[in-house]
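Consider a concrete sample entry:
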Amino acid sequence: MRDGLATHLAALWRYGLVLSGNRDVAEDLVQATCLRALERRSQFQPGTRLDRWLFSILHSIWINEVRARVVRQGAGFVDAELALVVDGGREIETNILASQMLTEIGRLPEAQRETVLLVYAEGYSYREAADHLNVPIGTIMSRLAVAREKLAQATGDRPAKEEDETRDRDERR
């Protein structure tokens, strides 16, 4: 388990950063994820993908933290999709274009941002992302289409529709 954790630390940190928008919070999420994974290693099913299990743990910790923070602030319960504020997009990358793109991704609603990360950064298939997020594959495709359009508008580019349509068609198979 420890060796497996070590190989996935960078991906966990990226996922934590996408969810929280803050480097320190991302590091805390990774640490909490590693601790929980070690404590509950008996729950891991051999033969399944460790990275998917770790991403699920991190996501659960994040959602619990968002809900707890809102309750502590006296605001009651909130939909996690509305609970993110990104701060520090320019600190993420020194490259101006990369920084701009990461900032724009950070402005996406959490569901779209998370889907973009899973499919484009972590290489999940549409089916794997749908299973991980417990949504239909069509929802993944819709989130990505909307996210691509928003990112294209924000950066002044036109989305590569042919390439996206080909990928969407291939993913449905």
